[in-house]
Amino acid sequence: MPRIRNILLDRDGTVILDKHYQHDPDELEFENGAVEGLGLLAAEGMRFFVLTNQSGIGRGYFSEEAMNACIARLDSMLAGHGVVVTETVFCPHAPDDTCNCRKPALGMWEVLREKYGLLPEESVMIGDKVADVELGLRAGLAASILVLTGKGEKHARKLSLPDFDFSSQSLWMETARTEGGWPQCVARDLVGAAQWILESLHEGEA
Asked: 126 - beta bridge partners?
C-alpha cells in the first residue's frame, strides 16, 4: 500500500468540541486527543484537510463570514501545535437543499482532489458520524475511521458493528469488514486514529 499522505478531517466532534451551531471563534475548544493525534501524523509529514457540513449557514443561524472567522481561528490554534491545515472546505447548505457537497456526497472531496491532486489510495477520512465514513467509502479512500468523540459512539451504535466492545479501553479497534457503511477502524479519539494509521496503513515506499 502507498504511504498515507492526506488526512481528511471532520471538524465538530472530531477536531473541536461539537457545540450547537458553533460560530464564535472565541469558543473553539479542542476535542479529546486532537492535538496529540494530529501531532503524531504531522510528524510523518501528512497534509491535513478539513471537510465540514455547516447547515447553520443555510438555516440562517450564522454567516459565511462567521464561518471563515472560525476557520482562521482553528488554523491558528492548530499551527501553534505544529499542525498546518492545508485547506478547510465547508458545505453551507441545509439538509433539505439540493447540493453535491453535503457529506456523504463527494463534492468537497472532489474539490480538494482536483485542486491538490489528491489520490484516494493515499488519503484517509476521519470523523465522528456515519456521513464521514460513507464519504470515505464512496470516494474509495484507503480507509474511513470513525472516532468515538463527539457523536461518534451514538453513530457507532447505529452501525451495529459485530462483536464490537464499547467497554474496551483500546485506543482503536479494527472492524471485521466494511459492508453496510462500516468503517475500517473505530478509534477512541484522534490519538487512536493516528496510531492505527501509522501501524496498519502507513508503509514506506518501495
From this structure: 9, 145
> Does residue 184 contact residue 144 with C-beta atoms inside 8 Å?
yes
Identify the sign of the CA torsion 202, 133, 72, 16: negative
Contact 105/99 with Cβ under 8 angstroms?
yes
Model confidence over 107-147: pLDDT tens digits?
Answer: 999 999 999 999 999 999 999 999 999 999 999 999 999 99
Whole-model pTM?
Answer: 0.94
Three cell numbers, residue 99: 447540493
Residue 26 is among the residues annotated as catalytic for this protein: no
Active site residue 12: yes
Task: Catalytic residue, from 12, 75, 128, 132: name it.
Answer: 12
Q: In the chain, what is the straight-line distance between the N-terminal and C-terminal CA atoms, in Å? A: 10
Note the pLDDT tens digit of each residue in 151-165: 999 999 888 876 778
Rounded Cα–Cα distance for residues 187 and 105 (Å): 23
Return the residue matching grid coordinates 496503513: 201
